Amino acid sequence: MSNLAELTLTEAADAIRAGNVSSLELLDACFAHIRARKELNAVIWLDYEDARQSALRADQATKKGGKLGLLHGIPMAHKDMFYRKGKPCTCGSRIRKNFVPEVTATVLARMDAAGAYSFGGLNMAEFAWNGTGHNKEFGNCHNPWNLPYVAGGSSSGSGAAVAACMTYAALGSDTGGSIRLPAAACGITGIKPTQTRVSRAGVMPLSFSLDNVGPLARTARDCARILSVIAGHDPLDPTSATEDVPHYEEALNGKLDGLKIGVPTTYFLDDADQPVGLAFDEAVRMLAKLGVKVERIPVPLIDDILAYALILCRVESATSHAEWMRKRPQDYTQDVSWLYGGYAIPATYYLEALSRRGPLLKEFAKEVFGRVDMLATPTIPSCVPTLAETDVEGQAVDAEAKSRALSANTIVFNYLGLPTISVNCGFDPNGLPIGLSFTGRPFAEVDILKLADAYQQETDWHKCRPPLLA
After folding, report:
1. What is the pLDDT of residue 1?
2. Burial class (CB within 10 angstroms; exposed 0-12, middle 13-18, buried 19+) of 303
3. In a designed cystine with 264, which of 31, 73, 299, 469 is the match (CB 3.0 to 4.6 A)?
4. Which of 1.10.3720.10, 3.90.1300.10, 3.40.190.120, 2.60.40.10 would CATH assign to domain 4-303+354-469?
5. Which of these is catalytic: 178, 199, 320, 407?
6. Is 228 a catalytic residue?
7. Is 93 a catalytic residue?
């Protein structure tokens, strides 16, 4: 088999199961791409030797026969904020540059149990704090479609590495869009599950009311397989949901009969760049051809939701970093300086933001999901900007505003806790991908995965590869 690194995760896993490829061959294919694409700066650390031993054990298990896990033999690297006992975990920061955890994140343990193994930590924004992938300590991550442009953040290395075929999938975190932004910017698929759907035990915290864990991969089917493995209640994370976990992949049957999607007439497309609007409109037309009913609807409460989301994010992030910010303020870069604003927000505002969350979700669900099954929006309303344009420590005009604008359409659903997926739906004039998002009711991951998969069955955007792979 040629171009092993370009297989989707499900294709690679099925090839191992059929005996057509070995896990070691897949690992070596990933490392060949990593060595050839160092200019992306998508990787912080690697451990080939340990991964090689894991690959050999996986290949021995394959030869013995018997039951194999859903991810058997699949090598992966993840955003460098998922703890693994005895391995480095920098969190993209100077403060944790030499940190070695004593515990393993539940999501990694579950992927291990399903037969996967890890080989490294991927670049990320410092402490997962920006949407661009800027990182002064380890260097900026670059977009594999056009190097001067951002890869999205904060899971920048995850997005770039999956798109550049350095890994078959990668875990990311999402507090304001940090799975969906790099998925959109790098032309891959990323899902933010329902709040509490996936355990956060052993994962670097940022804002506990908004943090989510989810996969970035090449297809919706890949994401479905990983989500089937990592979702579900975890005693180590008492906030994790007790809802039963469906077999997401088995639900991808292409049947969209009676499905109704809402296209917002307010906010989400108000400031969209023309290429984004055109690609989005074409995607909606394609969905209509698939039999999906399209209804244009106003989306309520956005101003309140945005205000409350920023309060929660600032206060909780400032709380998480309080001790370090008192003792080691010099070890933070300007990229995270706006975190200090959290200390100036009154407790009454924070409590109001928390207490209003349930009522606002109820009203939003009534107004939106009382009319449609899910909402379709552009993931990022603007064309992907350059690293220079969004460098808050540089001389670019309005760099901070441009950086924050990336998450304008995504942070809404963190506050509401709703499941959202981003897929590629085209390219802008600079050759950068454009993201299309589907958002559903709480715990409706099956529905958004089904729609995303059906869209990918009828289009080829997800099959496109960056020019540097040619």
Report:
1. 42
2. exposed
3. 299
4. 3.90.1300.10
5. 178
6. no
7. no
